[in-house]
């Protein structure tokens, strides 16, 4: 059953032109962003696109992702059928049944028939899920139900058309179409006029919905159908655990205070967002009732681009601020709620980079507006004047050693620089971890030294909070000092020091080996340099908490678990949220130096999860995590549970 090409051809041409124009207008807006190279390493990018876009590796990592995989591949396969449908509407002689031999045509229509049924089933499941158990609050939108209903309607129209054609005897491959043939059997006894009417109605219904759906896509959140695959191609090739440097010269603008200060990839991310809610569910701020919601941040960036893009393309100034209270603006208190944990990055199935955008906006607030929470003023002053968050005199840095003599680092004489860090030098609880580390290294015969009063803060919190100017100053000084002293290997006990020295300082030309204490201790144990007495399990039942900056940001998951297992004789218990799905302690992203005034405290949420297993000890690998866990235990009045660093467990078990 075919329409009159004289009627359908102009409709298809108009719909195609409008669709092309709409896509051009939308996607051209990303051109107002700052240039950024996302085309290097083509083979690696193609591999990533195949793995994550077509095989949907991240999508299927969550249970409902299987259903989306069915919809996605049904969409791709049926794109062939729909293309044939549209072409045949203009050129009836181009129908596949007329141009393909039956040996090829029959398997093809068999696939189309079965896939259409799978797609219909997946759409029904998605509709029920959206209605009964939506992925996030507010997910029951008319747009979402409308899109799913249109996809379902396309499938029903497909079956209606082919069932009628089979019943009329017009389909030569009827035996290869089990679903359509089964429906055709239900039409037995219907007259030719009824069947022809059904076929004609189904054809036009399919055509109308398909053309409307095509032209609605660029104006809906389902634009991700067009943007998600290329976004996987353009994804960062490394974990986005750092930020680009800024050049500090007179007249420069810093951070992202308007939509055109983001890169084109930042803006393309906003069109790629599926609004699936996975980042929202993973975000510790959103989970505990803070104003930050990564999904909403991406939506607001898109709305801001749509509001300002045309003006910027014409050389005008944006009228809607990217940071503020207006529609399409992001609230400042949302930006300051971010812990920089990277959970949103790990959860996003299409590799949208939410966290780096937040840091860019923080940079603008701090460096261009001097608009930041008042409690950060002391932090910035302490860092600038005394190079540590507490403002303690640098001469106090080595006092953690007490009366013990610890060797200063000397190039050519000491192999490892032990970078103690601010917490390990000044925080009373973390000093015990520092002592445990020195005990371990001495027991293993490691050649190490410290910088003592010459050591300076790495600047992690400054960079994450957006004070790039001060971070840049401190980074330059540290890099110069390391190079002058001939440092080639560094051991850290703080993941924040580790990721900063390892990742951020590479931007300053520092290429050296930075080893987190978890991996360092694991290597000492593997080499047999440490003898442990772990016959008796220490600290009761041990549950392990992953540090975001060691785990998600740097992929170190197994080393601390291996150390705990060797120190106690038993593998640690796992919290429900662990490894790449671990939940933040609440202190990252500079939040260590800020109070939580909104929602539930993040550390309490995490401690409550840890206590579900009734542990004797919560084991950590980070001084910030240790502080937050201990504070949470006090609040929960759980005096029977201790918090220990893995170094303390090992030091307690050393023989002799």
From TrEMBL:
PANTHER family: IRON-SULFUR-BINDING OXIDOREDUCTASE FADF-RELATED (PTHR43255:SF1), IRON-SULFUR-BINDING OXIDOREDUCTASE FADF-RELATED-RELATED (PTHR43255)
Keywords from the named record: 4Fe-4S, Iron, Iron-sulfur, Membrane, Metal-binding, Oxidoreductase, Transmembrane, Transmembrane helix
Record domain 4Fe-4S ferredoxin-type: where: 264-293, 328-358
Lineage start: Bacteria, Pseudomonadati, Thermodesulfobacteriota, Desulfuromonadia, Geobacterales
Record bears the keyword Electron transport: no
Protein name as it appears in the record: (Fe-S)-binding protein
Keyword Manganese tagged: no
Segments traversing the membrane: 70-91, 103-128, 144-164
InterPro entries: 4Fe4S_Fe-S-bd, 4Fe4S_Fe_S_CS, Cys_rich_dom, HdrC_iron-sulfur_subunit, Helical_ferredxn, NarG-like_sf
